Predict the structure.
Amino acid sequence: MRVMAQVGMVMNLDKCIGCHTCSVTCKQAWTNRAGTEYVWFNNVETRPGQGYPRRYEDQERWRGGWELNKRGRLRLKGGGRVKKLLGIFASPVQPELADYDEPWTYDYKTLIEAPLGDDFPVARPKSLITGEDTKITWSANWDDDLGGSMQNGELDPIVAKLRTESNEKIKFEFEQTFMFYLPRICEHCLNPSCMASCPSGAIYKRAEDGIVLVDQDRCRGWRQCITGCPYKKMYFNHKSGKAEKCTFCYPRIEIGLPTVCSETCVGRLRYLGIFLYDADAVTEAASTPDPKDLYRAQLDLLLDPNDPEVITAARHEGIPEDWMDAARRSPIYKLAKVYQVALPLHPEYRTMPMVWYIPPLSPIVDLLSSQGHDAEDAGTLFGAIDALRIPSEYLAELFTAGDTAIIDGVLRRLAGMRAYMRGISLGTGSDESIATNIGMDGKTVQEMYRLMAIAKYDERYVIPKAHVEQAHNLEEMGCSLDFEDGPGMYPSDAFGEGSGKPVPVAVETFHALRERQTTDAETQPGSLRGRVNLLNWDGRGAPEGLFPPKGDGSAR
């Protein structure tokens, strides 16, 4: 058993209100640069819907993720090494810009500065790629709030699959339809197919926390990773010619801060914490023959941080004690393994995703309430799970490779928690039979309720600080994204929000490298509170301040 730590996330879909605050703040922090206009590291999809890029779940077309060969071994769905080598100079199977969207802005200058005339000026949409007039036909949030579901709902790959299998149509009339929001980021998988697809070896999984990143120096823009990722969370920067992806806000994680999307989430639906897992068992778990068994196989990978054998093995692998303590307090471990209400997204892709979801129960409660029923009465609520809900088949295709029994079990636990806490809230006492009915005791139900409903900041985000990178953190003086004019941030003037702060070395390095790449002149390292930043010194000449001055004021 080789114990490793993985930073992961759980999202409670009952709490998502579809406000897209997470998408906007992520966009502002990471992808507001040239070449990333169409890129959304975080997006929120309305389901049913086509998703972003459109129909990304159709792996018969996009060939993402893993599959088993005739000998039962894992192989990339898009082809092995020989096939990729033979077609390395051909564009692999991947979405085109039209499948994402052609990002646009509006010609506000014409609207504001047009001369007086008989006609009212119009701000025409302009493509951010070509700068020419464009016609808006698609975008990242096109399916929001069932927008166009009457016409486009049938294009949802899951809906199409269910219809094929059952020969029944899911109706999209508004009085019979259903919807919920699904926020998506990179899954930071235990068995990432994007990493295996990269010919350059530019994609790597960090040993200390499991975050999957792209080495921009090694990336050669082959774009095989875009094909390999079944979630289509790899993007190509057409300006730099490099691949980019969600970084799980690793500079923030390293100093114990939550990701930007988690920090700014209005619904407080995101939980961050540590999973411990057996790295030696990942391949075997991903090779489970029956796709419906993949969820259980992945669940078995997650190790109990209170198990003495696991603690001993973790210490042997050099996992620090404060990381072990964080694993014991981890909210995502409790939701996924202890309470078993969180599920992975599309386990059938065999990538072992590490961003999990609590499926929605609210539409059941809302419907019962609208009909005049006591929606949280135990008898009414448990009965409704079998008849009045988002189709369990749809949720099963998302989270359990089609196993509806697991979905029904999760929904029963969520319903049982509501019914049990109802008695306590109304002062009529707790009904222990409800807890027994869902395989729990009253104390566990109340602990689950606290975590899911009223948990405080430090309970939702249990993030241990980095150890190997501690010197780096001290040098940075905090996450460089928090500093205005840092990487990915818009410029600010001297009197902006960041004025008066010492400039972090990373920000100074960022600007020095950018200047070096865009000018023919030599770039001298700047000073940081009287110190010379030798990280930016190219070795030519002696920068000012490198040596202490002589008595006459000149450098020695």
Summary: Residues 493-536 form one domain. Residues 404-426 form the longest helix (23 residues).
